[in-house]
Amino acid sequence: MKALLRRFVRSLGWDVSRTTAFGKHPFVDISKLATAVPRLGFDVGANEGQSALELRRLFPEAKLYCFEPSEAAFRALQQNLGDDPNLSLERIAFGDHKGEATLYENAESVTNSLLPNAPEAHASQPESFAIPTGESTVPITTLDDFCGERSISHLDFLKIDSQGYDLRILQGARKHLAERCISFIVVEMLFAPLYRGQAYFDETYGFLTGFGYQLVGLYAIHRSPAGDILWCDALFRCQPA
Prior knowledge:
This protein has 241 residues and is of the alpha/beta class. It has helices at 2-11, 26-33, 50-58, 71-81, 143-149, 166-171, 174-178, 201-210, and strands spanning 40-44, 63-67, 87-90, 93-94, 99-106, 132-141, 155-160, 182-190, 213-223, 229-238. Strand 1 (40-44), helix 3 (50-58) and strand 2 (63-67) form a beta-alpha-beta unit. It starts with a helix and ends with a strand.
């Protein structure tokens, strides 16, 4: 969704510049806060590789798993990043259960979700962002199960952008959260109704702080014309037990 918004903003004649100052980008802040060089991370909801490219630039030596359930977006992900030996591309969704799920696909793939669009969604974003185009059945698993099957005991960072499904993904990572096996988490936070059954900021915040995670900051805050926050990214870090 962030890449789409950058294109939309530029179409209005504005520019979006990158900065490395603290508090401006969650991945940059991870690089500054980490006590050791990150070696392993997950990009959940990788879409066409927008975040993965940033992560590769900041952490070129890290092993990065990219997860994207959409067939079309996954093909683009392969084209953009498929020749990187430190990448593992996985066409699968994460959630709070294992099996199959329905992926609701829209005209802009960055708005695809395992949740259907909310009736009020168009009031909080450009109307073209979430025009339904179809549905597909995709495999789904939990982060705990995937890591157990791959013998992954620790993640240096976890990025989640799943359009309203983020809390369910975190609920499928309870073991890793309880054991403090994820150092940093970047997750999209929703304040406006975009998807049916979505989690809101307070739910996700309460869930993560309940496991001892500390909110570092909010990033890429998008507001309505009236000034209300619609959605943003949030960075959490694990606090010592």
